[in-house]
Amino acid sequence: MPYINIKVTDENVTKEQKRALIRGATELMVKVLNKEPSTTFVLIDEVNTDNWGIGYEQVSEIRNIIK
Amino acid sequence: MPYINIKVTDENVTKEQKRALIRGATELMVKVLNKEPSTTFVLIDEVNTDNWGIGYEQVSEIRNIIK
Amino acid sequence: MPYINIKVTDENVTKEQKRALIRGATELMVKVLNKEPSTTFVLIDEVNTDNWGIGYEQVSEIRNIIK
Amino acid sequence: MPYINIKVTDENVTKEQKRALIRGATELMVKVLNKEPSTTFVLIDEVNTDNWGIGYEQVSEIRNIIK
Amino acid sequence: MPYINIKVTDENVTKEQKRALIRGATELMVKVLNKEPSTTFVLIDEVNTDNWGIGYEQVSEIRNIIK
Amino acid sequence: MPYINIKVTDENVTKEQKRALIRGATELMVKVLNKEPSTTFVLIDEVNTDNWGIGYEQVSEIRNIIK
Fold it and tell me: C39 CB contacts (<8 Å, ≥6 apart)?
């Protein structure tokens, strides 16, 4: 019955990558904790880079500096 | 002072349904725990079906198989 | 497949009250959104009154003033 | 290593305001808890006013009544 | 910069299992999304079985029936 | 009506520090977004250092290495 919430910046995560995250996270619950996959939820939140901060800065600004 | 967060897939939840969820969840806090409705928060997140997984699969794929 | 998270202060919520919250929240999903109860999760977090603030104040302090 | 999640209604929060929230929240962690800013995350969620309820009502409806 | 939150029931998860969850979830972010591990957070919440419901029932009750 | 959730490791955060976090976070909402403090919630989660990972490692292990 695990619930896994993955938060990443919304920088072109593809449908295939989301599927790989869901499969990998579910597999991890089965392998490490012997959990039942049919009641394992994985939810992915894609967060705008203006709305995510690290080290006092917006990720959108950090990306601009790096460019 | 309760805080209730409801996460559902974003499959055409209407404004009226959202209102019903807010009223019902608030009522539950009042009835069961005698909480004060004026400081009861209900937040609804609608999650894209590509971003929600169950049983190793994306909900968007499960919906396709059922069609 | 809904996921509901209920956060309340940890002020002697009984096992029966928790059960009532779980049943009521699940029922709300079935009635309003026609969701499947067998994949409806309800999680209750009980938060220490020192760790919950409203109106600039800790709930533990608000409770003391009221006493 | 703190993680701060700020949820507000999506009512025209500007990029500058988001930056001020990120800086202020990070500063709070440094000042109060002596945390390291380079591993302090701040995430802002903007929630539609139809999806946020208080006192049994949708915020979108409360805003309409006030107008 | 991903943030992963894993919620499981508090049924004797060992320190070694927690470490395996942290490593596995971080590795998933690196492999699938090419993320930087030094800013990847994994947080595990262990939830009391009285506080987790599925299919209208508390997990503590479901465990009792199965015994 | 903001909701702020602060997650930190459970390393002897005092009641006074929690109060400072609650006041500071509420003040930030008032100053930056002109929000109403009486409906501003601040919730603090203290997470065991075994349950928090960064850079593949448990914080409890990182603390041991530093000692």
Answer: A39, B54, C1, E54, E55
E contact chains, 3+ CB pairs < 8 A? A, C, D, F
What value does the CA radius of gyration of chain D take, rounded to a whole number of Å? 15
For F12-41, write each residue's pLDDT tens digit.
999 999 999 999 999 999 999 999 999 999
For the segment A13-24, what is each residue's pLDDT rounded down to a tens digit? 999 999 999 999
Q: Rounded distance, CA B54 to CA C42, Å?
A: 16
Do you know the residue count of chain C?
A: 67
- State the smallest CA–CA distance between residue D39 and chain E in angstroms: 7
Distances (CA, A) of D15 to A57, D6, F2: 12, 15, 17
Task: Pull the structure tokens for residue C26.
Answer: 């699940």
Q: Which chain C residue has its CA at the smallest distance from A4's CA?
A: C3
Classify residue F9 by its DSSP letter. Answer: E
Instruction: For tokens 């990998």, name the residue.
Output: A24
CA distance E14 to F50: 10
What DSSP designation does C67 have?
Answer: -
- Across the interface, whether the CB atoms of A38 and B55 are under 8 A apart is answered yes
The pLDDT of residue E40 is above 90: yes
CA distance C36 to D12: 36
Classify residue C42 as left (phi > 0), alpha (psi -120 to 50) or beta. beta
Domains of chain A, CATH where assigned: 3-66 (3.30.429.10)
As separate numbers, helices (DSSP H) first and strands (DSSP E) second, chain F gives 2, 4
**Collapsed DSSP state (helix, strand, coil) of residue F64:** helix
Q: What is the ipTM of this complex?
A: 0.97
User: Which H or E run includes E57?
Assistant: strand E57-58
Which chain E residue shows the shortest CA-CA distance from C8?
E51
Closest CA to E46 of F51, A33, C19: F51
In terms of phi and psi (left: phi > 0; alpha: psi -120 to 50; beta: otherwise), the region of D30 is alpha
Write out the two tokens for F60. 């409890």
Least Cα separation, residue F7 to chain B (angstroms) = 16
